[in-house]
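User: quick one - fold this with NAP bound?
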Amino acid sequence: MNSQSKIRVGVLGATGAVGQRFVQMLQGHPWFEISALCASQRNVGKRYVDACNWLLRGDMPDPLRGCVLQEMAPGIDCQLVFSALPGGPARSIEAELAAAGYIVCSNASAYRYEPDVPLLIPEVNPEHVGLIDAQRRQRGWQGFIVTNPNCSTTHLVSALHPLHEAFGVEKVFVVTMQAVSGAGYPGVPSMDVIDNVIPFIDAEEEKMERREPQKLLGRFDGRGVQLADFVVSAHCNRVPVRNSHLAAISVAFARRPGLEDARQVWAEYDPLPQRLGLPSAPRPAILYRAETDRPQPRMDRLSGSIPGMTTVVGRLRADPLFHMKFLALGHNTIRGAAGGSLLNAEFLVSQGYLKAERPRRALYRFSP
Ligand code: NAP
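Assistant: Sure. Structure tokens for the protein plus NAP:
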């Protein structure tokens, strides 16, 4: 696909932690090209280089430095917007754009729990895009909204999905150790978090316990999603790690598997986005590390063929209270945010929701 035939996309909240990841991940993307960057009113009209404190490795992409930040309103020159907005402003802005015909791939929590809005991880619940038709019909929107889950739920559910398919998850106990970048920029004050663990993240446990895993692993019956029937108990903690969330997970199943059965299920996991060859679908989707002391944030957060998109699991062992326990690690601003949204958009293209001229399986060299 040459540059003229790429799908034009905008980034809402381009100056923030997740917005910058979008900008980085969209460089050299084979199907999408950035045609608009947007930020809050205080930055509209400024050049990206002047408004954005670039936090990622390497420089701000050269062609975007002089890009003038736009208002988030109909009229933006693109087909699809990636939203990295806080939940509050996302509510009205995303709806206005979807009503006007834009496809909105959102990281925000504003629409995640609406019954007609897909909460999507394409490896886990690709059939939930079936909600889109009802969403457009009921709301009278020309476009639509698709969301991705919270960054800690993403890796919990990604690790559980093949186990749930094989053995039926019944109970989950999870303790998270979450990176400071999960709180956005500037996020948690350094004076609070260095040499410390903060045992509270606003609204996080509620999302992990009641709102997201059951919808993600729920069954789409042609009209709506029947929530999966299992319970989750979550303890969420902020730790002095820059990027990636680590979760210690104990699980009980309807049919108790042996440890080797679980390892085999992970090893054989080959979900739809990988089979479709979507540009951001990592191989493997789930990486099992056999060492006694892995996964670790510093060593494993950029694992996989698309760095930061793979969920890394390890330390699988029997659990005296539940059936088994293990650790799962994943990058929060890549797979847990911008990369998750980007893969959702690629999946929508593959399913014909966006018109692209001959999307192809080009090699994609994202380098964080
Ligand atoms: P952030 O660093 O605080 O960035 C927020 C962005 O939204 C900035 O670009 C900001 O623009 C813009 N913004 C703030 N208030 C606005 C308003 N009233 N109207 C319009 N724009 C506004 O936050 P973040 O960490 O990138 O998170 C963005 C979204 O992704 C949130 O919904 C968050 O929950 C979700 N998320 C984050 C992570 C993560 O790991 N960080 C993971 C998953 C999901 P200005 O610079 O112009 O103020």
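One thing worth noting: The two ends are 24 Å apart (CA to CA).
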